[in-house]
Structures are given as C-alpha cells and as structure tokens.
Amino acid sequence: MAEPIYRRVVIKLSGEYLAGSHAFGIDQPTVDRIADDLIAAQKLGIEVAVVIGGGNIVRGVEVSARGVSRPTGDTMGMLATMMNCLALEAAIERKGTAARTLSAFVMPEISELFTRSAAHKYLAEGRIVLLGGGTGNPFFTTDTTAVLRAAEIGAQVVLKATNVDGVYSADPKKDPKAKRFDRLTHSQAIEGGYKVMDATAFALARETSLPIIVFSIAEPGSIGGILRGSGHGTVVAG
C-alpha cells in the first residue's frame, strides 16, 4: 500500500451529501459511512480536520431570498454546520476514534471555540477535528472556510469531496460533452468560473499556495485513495 503523500489535511464535505437519498436532514447510514472513511484516512498516519457545509439543514442564500436579511440567513446556515459537525463527531466516537468539534462561535455549552492552538493540540493528540460555524462571518461559504482553516492550521492540502470525480467545464450531469480536467491552476479555475468551488476560495488558495483536490466521495475509501495518490480527482494548484 502506498504511503500517504500528505500529513495534515482539511477535508471539505458537502452538507447536502449528509442527507443521503433524502431531500434534507441527516441520513445516519451516510454519516456512518463518512465516519468510516475519515477514520481509515487517519489510520494512514494523517492528521485530519473536516469542514462541513449546512445545506442539508438550511442554506443561508435561500433563506435570505425569502425575505430574511443575508447576515441572518448566513448565520442560520453556519449554525446548521454545527449540527452536522456534532452528528459526525458522535458517529466517529461511537466507532472508537476520538473527535473534537471546534466552533467559530462562542458556545461553551456545546463546543470549544476554534483557535489555532486548540486545533494543533487535538490533531497532535490523534483526534479528528471538526471545524464548525463557517468563518463566523456572513457572506463567506464553507468552501472559503475550508481554505482559510487549512491555511491557519498549516494543512498541506484541501480535499473537496463532491458528487463528481473532479472539475468539469460544465455540469457533466447536464452536458455529456463536458470536459474533465486532471489539473488546473488556481487562476484557470477562477477565470473559468467553474462552480465546484467559489472564486473566493480559489483566490485564497492561490494567495496561500494551497493545493485543492476535487474528487467524488461516492465510493467508500475514496478519501484514502486520494491521500495515497491513487485516487481519481482534479488537482487545482500553482
């Protein structure tokens, strides 16, 4: 088995994916399967931090489109990410692996506040660290959160887990002629307007020289495959 090519990573998971085959909510078998993948990745000797979206519970942009202010809608979305973190933390710990949720918000009865030192401490202890609450500010996506947190904690790569196996020139589910890219620069990803991550996330990754690997989470073991360099995804770097 190939040795992992990274030692500290941030994995970005879609909130919608946690709903499984349902339109919304948390599908426990899906959460358990993701927990298994994260534990397997950590057992490769990798320090694993995770950022999760909240779209399976509430999407701030959609809430604000119905009359709620954007800052309030985004705050609701950030709280939804905390629910997902707690669900995944519980699943990981049920399987015998230590995990810890850190929040961008002060909520001591629920979670410890995110700081770089706390993240470093728990990663060094062998815990899977779940980073909830987005950036703590409205107008920023959890994609941007993943890149920001990766830069803050000294991760070597951001793994963007999606429902497609990389970056395409168009939605491959709608356009059979969509071209898949094996590699892009950050600038090409921004200029191409590819929707797999938002431009702010790509721009921050470019500024901090962080590679992003976009891959499909659909197959069990896909995280480990990417970490060993044998997985199928698009590398956005340089």
UniProtKB/TrEMBL annotation:
<feature type="domain" description="Aspartate/glutamate/uridylate kinase">
    <location>
        <begin position="8"/>
        <end position="216"/>
    </location>
</feature>
<dbReference type="GO" id="GO:0005829">
    <property type="term" value="C:cytosol"/>
</dbReference>
<feature type="binding site">
    <location>
        <position position="59"/>
    </location>
    <ligand>
        <name>ATP</name>
    </ligand>
</feature>
<dbReference type="Pfam" id="PF00696">
    <property type="entry name" value="AA_kinase"/>
</dbReference>
<keyword id="KW-0418">Kinase</keyword>
<keyword id="KW-0963">Cytoplasm</keyword>
<feature type="binding site">
    <location>
        <position position="55"/>
    </location>
    <ligand>
        <name>ATP</name>
    </ligand>
</feature>
<comment type="pathway">
    <text>Pyrimidine metabolism; CTP biosynthesis via de novo pathway; UDP from UMP (UMPK route): step 1/1.</text>
</comment>
<feature type="binding site">
    <location>
        <position position="54"/>
    </location>
    <ligand>
        <name>UMP</name>
    </ligand>
</feature>
<comment type="subunit">
    <text>Homohexamer.</text>
</comment>
<feature type="binding site">
    <location>
        <begin position="12"/>
        <end position="15"/>
    </location>
    <ligand>
        <name>ATP</name>
    </ligand>
</feature>
<dbReference type="GO" id="GO:0033862">
    <property type="term" value="F:UMP kinase activity"/>
</dbReference>
<dbReference type="InterPro" id="IPR011817">
    <property type="entry name" value="Uridylate_kinase"/>
</dbReference>
<dbReference type="GO" id="GO:0006225">
    <property type="term" value="P:UDP biosynthetic process"/>
</dbReference>
<protein>
    <recommendedName>
        <fullName>Uridylate kinase</fullName>
        <ecNumber>2.7.4.22</ecNumber>
    </recommendedName>
</protein>
<comment type="function">
    <text>Catalyzes the reversible phosphorylation of UMP to UDP.</text>
</comment>
<keyword id="KW-0808">Transferase</keyword>
<dbReference type="GO" id="GO:0044210">
    <property type="term" value="P:'de novo' CTP biosynthetic process"/>
</dbReference>
<feature type="binding site">
    <location>
        <position position="162"/>
    </location>
    <ligand>
        <name>ATP</name>
    </ligand>
</feature>
<dbReference type="InterPro" id="IPR015963">
    <property type="entry name" value="Uridylate_kinase_bac"/>
</dbReference>
<dbReference type="InterPro" id="IPR001048">
    <property type="entry name" value="Asp/Glu/Uridylate_kinase"/>
</dbReference>
<keyword id="KW-0547">Nucleotide-binding</keyword>
<feature type="binding site">
    <location>
        <position position="163"/>
    </location>
    <ligand>
        <name>ATP</name>
    </ligand>
</feature>
<feature type="binding site">
    <location>
        <position position="74"/>
    </location>
    <ligand>
        <name>UMP</name>
    </ligand>
</feature>
<feature type="binding site">
    <location>
        <begin position="135"/>
        <end position="142"/>
    </location>
    <ligand>
        <name>UMP</name>
    </ligand>
</feature>
<feature type="binding site">
    <location>
        <position position="171"/>
    </location>
    <ligand>
        <name>ATP</name>
    </ligand>
</feature>
<feature type="binding site">
    <location>
        <position position="168"/>
    </location>
    <ligand>
        <name>ATP</name>
    </ligand>
</feature>
<dbReference type="InterPro" id="IPR036393">
    <property type="entry name" value="AceGlu_kinase-like_sf"/>
</dbReference>
<keyword id="KW-0067">ATP-binding</keyword>
<dbReference type="GO" id="GO:0005524">
    <property type="term" value="F:ATP binding"/>
</dbReference>
<comment type="similarity">
    <text>Belongs to the UMP kinase family.</text>
</comment>
<keyword id="KW-0665">Pyrimidine biosynthesis</keyword>
